[in-house]
Write a structure and sequence with these properties.
This protein is α+β, with helices and mostly antiparallel strands. The chain is 39% helix and 23% strand. The protein is built from five helices and five strands.
């Protein structure tokens, strides 16, 4: 998940700083402009309030994946060259070498 430049834009009369923080809207505002807020949620969480209290939070599928699985899964074709080089040259610290033996035992079962 790359950092995006923060850009202030008006959405339904509210100034949203995209790429940072959250946007807070009422459930009525959400109902009247679902598509706009779905697009906004691609850049930042959108808090939807009901009776003045946060009721629901709309987030991107990418952020949901990160929250539920602790990682983001992408196709290899979508990974930039710098990240691919970092993966290819990554080394496991020596203090964790004992984990290799555990993996080998699991594979022998």
């Amino acid at each position: 998940m790359g950092l995006r430049e923060a850009v202030p834009i008006p959405i339904m009369g509210k100034m949203a700083i995209l790429g940072t923080g959250t946007m807070k809207i009422t459930s009525t505002e959400f109902k009247n402009s679902v598509g706009r807020f779905q697009d906004a949620a691609m850049r930042q969480p959108v808090e939807i309030t009901k009776n003045g209290r946060t009721h629901t939070v709309l987030i991107s599928a990418e952020y949901y994946e990160l929250l539920t699985h602790g990682r983001i899964v992408r196709r290899i074709e979508d990974i930039d060259d710098e990240t691919l080089r970092a993966i290819a040259t990554a080394q496991v610290p020596a203090e964790y070498a004992y984990l290799d033996a555990e993996l080998e035992l699991d594979q022998q079962k």
